[in-house]
Write a structure and sequence with these properties.
single chain, Arc Repressor Mutant, subunit A, D-Maltodextrin-Binding Protein, domain 2, 3 domains, nine-stranded mixed sheet, disordered C terminus
Length: about 325
């Protein structure tokens, strides 16, 4: 390879990488232009100039769509890692300026809000009073989607006992998942329930009960555990608020599934009993952030606070 060939290959710039990546994702130069905020002629002209320097085409036009050539796919293989590296560098430089001049955008599920997110963010604000903090309460997978979309810096969610978060987009190179603690599950029943005097109860013994069940993704624990126990829970009342759930239980509307963290700080009415699920079932509290932010001072400070809560919690800590 001549020095001129080497210089041409080294001239592939970030704009070219992003254009190739966008064309592959959208299937057309028009779609890439829309995604990147360029005009279609600007992308076409840039690619023509780069292809002339390289001596090979990067993109092949097929009708109204476009696809990458073999050379384009070579560029595509390195584009994501370079993009990720630049995102990482940008996040680091931004946060190095000053932790207290930064921001922390957290998305979390309803189950996380009262027992985890509120105290954790209160400590974060106390330690870093100039940090701009925002919070969005939503369903677990939606919270993680907000991280992927760049609309949240961290998601704090519970992974249910039978949920391994195996979806490809959750296990992509863009995602950093850190487990904080494992939280034992309990079932709350009226004190008049035939099983109320037991310490532990198998869920199959509650197959005929009415349930106060969380809506949407929040109800995944109940649905999965009940399915394993051989029944489908009849949830005539749905609420994502644990206090409301327990009030319904106290009034005899049915049973509800909750956890040690959710019960912490709640004064249970004398008319209900909280029983351990048998066999013991644990869900995992997980913090999800972008891989490019895994060493961000803001993210690490928030992680330290979450782990500090783990050390003071009655929930079971994870090693490390």
């Amino acid at each position: 390879m001549s020095d001129d060939d080497t210089d041409a290959l080294l001239s592939i710039d970030l704009r070219t990488l992003m254009m190739v990546l966008a064309i592959d994702q959208t299937g057309s130069i028009t779609g890439a232009a829309r995604q990147l905020g360029y005009s279609q002629p600007a992308i076409s002209q840039h690619l023509r100039r780069m292809e002339a320097r390289l001596g090979v085409p990067l993109v092949q036009k097929i009708g109204r769509s476009s696809r990458l050539t073999d050379a384009g796919r070579v560029v595509l293989r390195v584009a994501p890692s370079i993009n990720q590296g630049l995102r990482f560098a940008g996040a680091q430089i931004r946060d190095i300026r000053s932790l207290n001049l930064g921001r922390l955008r957290v998305a979390a599920s309803t189950a996380v809000t009262r027992g985890v997110a509120v105290p954790a963010l209160a400590r974060m604000r106390a330690q870093h009073p100039d940090l701009v903090i925002s919070y969005t309460e939503t369903e677990p997978l939606r919270a993680i989607e907000l991280v992927h979309a760049g609309k949240a810096d961290a998601a704090v969610v519970f992974r249910n006992p039978r949920s391994s978060f195996t979806a490809p987009w959750l296990r992509s190179d863009d995602t950093e998942m850190r487990d904080i603690l494992r939280d034992p599950l309990h079932v709350v029943v009226p004190s008049t329930h035939p099983l109320a005097d037991r310490r532990r109860v198998p869920l199959e013994m509650l197959a005929d009960d009415q349930w106060i069940g969380p809506a949407g993704g929040e109800g995944e624990s109940l649905r999965e555990l009940a399915a394993e126990a051989g029944f489908s829970p009849e949830t005539s009342i749905q609420t994502n608020n644990v206090t409301s759930s327990i009030r319904f239980v106290a009034q005899g509307f049915g049973a509800c599934l909750t956890s040690r963290i959710e019960l912490a700080g709640i004064s249970l009415p004398a008319t209900v009993r909280a029983l351990d699920v048998e066999p013991v079932e644990l869900r995992t509290l997980t913090m999800v952030s972008g891989r490019h932010q895994q060493e961000s001072p803001v993210i690490l400070a928030f992680l330290r606070i979450l782990r500090g809560m783990r050390d003071r919690s009655e929930a079971r800590p994870l090693p490390g």
